[in-house]
Design brief:
This protein is α+β, with helices and mostly antiparallel strands. Helices cover about 30% and strands about 25% of the residues. The protein has helices at about 10-15, 35-40, 45-65, 125-130, 135-140, 145-170; strands at about 5-10, 20-25, 75, 80-85, 90-95, 100-105, 110-120, 180, 190-200, 210-220, 220-230. It has a 5-stranded antiparallel sheet with strand order 7-11-10-9-8, covered by helices on one side. It starts with 5 loop residues before the first strand and ends in a 5-residue tail after the last strand. The structure holds coenzyme A.
């Protein structure tokens, strides 16, 4: 692994009010960086998948080192979720040319979720699969370039929120189960506010009521979104 591929991520760190540690990699990271217990999860995977999995683990290892946690094998749970060390919340995302990880002590955040997507990736024909009827009406009323960004954001926000809530609830949510609201404003500045509201019961017991607030940023070819839930009350 080339260490210079990894760097602290201001882009991801800026998505959170919670104190998080964020790292990103913009170039491939080889599978030789994987620990033995991690490598077994991608032994039969295709080259691209091995690369993104290795990049995520390398970013996670670097981030965990900031919490003085070293040599921790980041295993994969039954539902593909990363199994973070006791007392740590975290999230991983990867897309073409970008991999990112955020972690925090659970005294800072009960759970974290991040997602990165390509801005043009959610084509118009896909909108009805990821958007609620209200979101569809909103997207259709926007100018085309803004609509492309906002469709990618709706997708990204739902994926990020899904990753954030899953470790706490173990609930599977469909794209129709939550709706996304976006802070209006200039297109290319960030981070900006985004929030998610359930359209059915979501059992986030012990946490504040919805809407759940996150942040997003449009940067270069990417839209990135992050959700962080406050620590559980003792
Ligand atoms: C899990 C899921 C969100 C991943 O999103 P993606 O855009 O395909 O891929 P990303 O690269 O951004 O994220 C992948 C990472 O998510 C993490 N992840 C996977 N399953 C997860 C889960 N159940 N809970 C939390 N994190 C999970 C993993 O760390 C994975 O990377 P890794 O396998 O290398 O460790 C998506 O595949 C999925 O299953 N979604 C379920 C439906 C949904 O999103 N509904 C939205 C309604 S709220």
């Amino acid at each position: 692994m080339r260490r210079e591929n990894l760097r602290a991520s201001r882009l991801l760190g800026g998505l959170f009010a919670n104190r998080v540690i964020a790292f990103e990699a913009r170039e491939p990271i080889g599978p030789e960086s994987l620990l033995e217990e991690e490598a077994r999860y991608v032994r039969r995977a295709v080259h691209k998948r091995v690369g993104e999995f290795a990049a995520g683990r390398a970013c996670a290892r670097r981030a965990l080192a900031e919490l003085a946690i070293t040599s921790f094998p980041l295993r994969v749970g039954a539902d593909r979720e990363p199994l973070w060390p006791e007392g740590v919340a975290g999230s991983i995302t990867h897309t073409a040319g970008f991999c990112g990880v955020v972690v925090a002590r659970t005294t800072e955040a009960a759970s974290l979720g991040i997602d990165a997507e390509q801005r043009g990736a959610v084509h118009r024909r896909l909108w009805r699969h990821i958007a609620t009827p209200e979101e569809l009406r909103w997207l259709e009323a926007l100018a085309p370039s803004r609509a492309a960004d906002m469709a990618a954001l709706v997708f990204s926000a739902k994926e990020a929120f899904f990753k954030c809530q899953f470790p706490l609830t173990r609930e599977w949510l469909s794209f129709a189960d939550v709706s996304v609201s976006v802070e209006p404003g200039a297109v290319r500045t960030g981070p900006r506010a985004v929030s998610v509201t359930p359209r059915r019961r979501v059992a986030l017991r012990g946490l504040p009521p919805p809407p759940w607030a996150g942040r997003y940023a449009l940067r270069g070819s990417l839209v990135v979104t992050g959700f962080g839930l406050p620590p559980r009350e003792r």
